[in-house]
Amino acid sequence: MEFSLITSPDEIERMRDEWNTLLAASASHVPFLRSDYQLVWWKTKGGGEWANGALNVALAREGGRLVGIAPLFFTHNRDGEPALMLIGSVEISDYLDVIARTEDIPAFIEGLLTFLNGPDVPAWRVLDWYNILDTSPTLPALERASRAHGWDYAQQRLQHSPYIPLPGDWEAYLGSIEKKQRHEIRRKIRRLENSGLPWRWYIVEDDSRLDAEMEELIALMVNDPDKAGFMTQAMRETFLEIARQACREGYLQLSFLEIDGRKAAGCIAFDYQNRIWVYNSGLNHEFVEYSPGWVLIAFLLRWANEHKRLEFDFLRGNEEYKYRFGAIDRFIVRAQVRRE
Question: pTM for this structure?
């Protein structure tokens, strides 16, 4: 493999089709690795999470054909060490990884570490890679290659990332979860249906309304004190641009539950690769007696089954409600390679 370095976002923009074509065949085909998402994240350094950084995206080619991308940037990590990190680290990108076909990953990682040990990249001390799924073939390849170089490798479990495999039928899905939870879902839906209040749920389809609808979602999100502190102006602008870009690329799913003419719950998700990736949500606590968040998730699960989506991915976090909907656990990890 022949390696080279990209240091400008304009270069990523120019190769976006080639980038996304490789991603489609990659072992880790997730929306957070798309060139459009990565460019949005880079523009604001994750909504202000990083004060500074320098792009150092490593490309690998064989006979001119792109076979690997390590979307990296150089900065000082949370421990103050000079580090090469994955673009998207840490807070708002649930799944990250390198981009390569499964069969190419061992050779790509081996060649990548040799390249990163050369003179073309900044003087890093640690590769500090967050939010890699624990099932990724990158992890064993990275450990083997690190040890071959005589470098230290460490792996730390970070967070739960539960998901629901979908059968493609709403009743079959309900039959697959615990009886108590099945009855609870139906009971909450009936409570809303019998409330006597007008209600509807919908997926936003009018692109001209996107910014206004996103502002309403953010207004619901900041009802949560933790999210209110997180949603700085820079983070708000980043969320808006992520939604705009996903809408332009055709994989945004923005949905709301309205009760009595007011938004009671909202959810931003990605409808991508025949899966639903639930990115964030918000609630109006004035409607708490109708469990609007639960009900909206139930409607989205029904939609996903009816439209033959394969998975409903809750992304990071081990909130209890996810498991009550029947989610299966998996985890993301932090992998570190340290050279002296």
Answer: 0.96
